Predict the structure.
Amino acid sequence: MTLSGGTRRTFSPGVYCPLITPFNEVTGDVDLEAFKTQIVRLAKAGIGLVLHGTNGEAGHLSNEERIIMVEAAREALDDNDLNDVPLLVGTGLGSARETIALTKLVAKAGADAVIVIPPGYFAFAIGKDSNAIKDFFFQIFEASPVPVMIYNFPAAAAGIDLNSDLLIELSEHPNNFGVKLTCAGIGKGHRVAQYTASESYIARHPFKQQYLVLPGFSDYLFSAMAAKQNGCITGTGNVFPKLIVALFKAATEFFKNPTAEGYAKVTELQSIVTEADWIIVKVGISGTKYALNQYIQPKLGGVTRTPLPPVTEESKRMVDECLAEAFSIEKSL
C-alpha cells in the first residue's frame, strides 16, 4: 500500500497490538464505531496495529466483515491525520488458495502487509512435514501483493511449531518481512534475529525492509530485545498501549546508553507489564473486553462470539483487583 507520492508504508521495530473485535451485545454484529475508536486510540498512543489475529477472533469473522473492517480502519486513520500508520492484517485460512484470495482482498481494502498462521486442520498430515509447510508459505509469498509476516502460534495451529531452521529458510524469500513468535521461544527468536540482522543477509536483500522478529507477549519484552529481537505484538496493548510503548522506549534507550538509572527504569516498567500481561492472558479475550468496557469506555470492547464464553466473575475480579497499578500508570502517561 502506498501513500501519495509513491511512499510505501512499512513496519519498523516497535510494539504492536492485535486488536480485539467488538461485537454488539444485542445484534452480535461488528461494532464499527467502537472498532474505529479503538483504532484511533491505539494509533495515537504510538502502538502498531494488527487486525484479525487471535485476539480479534479472526476465526469468527466472515470475509465480508474482514474487508469492511480493514476499510473502516483505514478510513478512521486517514480521517484523524494518521494516514502514515500501516495496517498488518491476519489472512491465514485453511488452504494456500483461500489465504491468497483473502490476502489480495485485504490488500485492496487497505492492508499494508499480512500475517499468516500455518493451517492447523490437517496438522496430523503436515505438522512434521517441513516441505509441506514451506510450500504453503512460499505459495503465499509469491502470490501476495503485500509483504507477509509468519505467525508461529502452536496453540492456535493444532500444535504446528516452526523451528528456527525453518524460519531462517523462509526468511530468505524477499516477500517475507518478519515473524511473530507466540511460542515464548526466546532462543528461537534470538537465532532468527541474529541471522536476519547479519551483514551477509542484508547484502543478499538490499531492497528488503528490516526483518522483524516479534514475540507474541510483552512479559519478556526487555529480555527479548536483549536477545536481538525487535519489539513485540501483544494483546495487552489493547488495554495498556501507553505503558507498553513506554517500556519499549525505555528498553531502546537503555541499549543505546546503558546506565544504572536506565536499567532501574526499564526493569521497573517490565515488572509492571509482566504482571499485567499475565492477568490479561489469564482472563482471555472476554476479560480484555471487560477491561475496555469497564475502565476505558463503555461498549469499547463489546462482547465475544460463541463458542468463546462471556466474561466470568472470577475474570472480572482479577481485572478489578490486579490491574489497578497498571491502570494508574497508563492514565498518568
Observations:
- Residues 99 and 330 are 37 Å apart (CA to CA).
- The first strand starts at residue 14 and ends at 18.
- The chain has a mean pLDDT of 96.
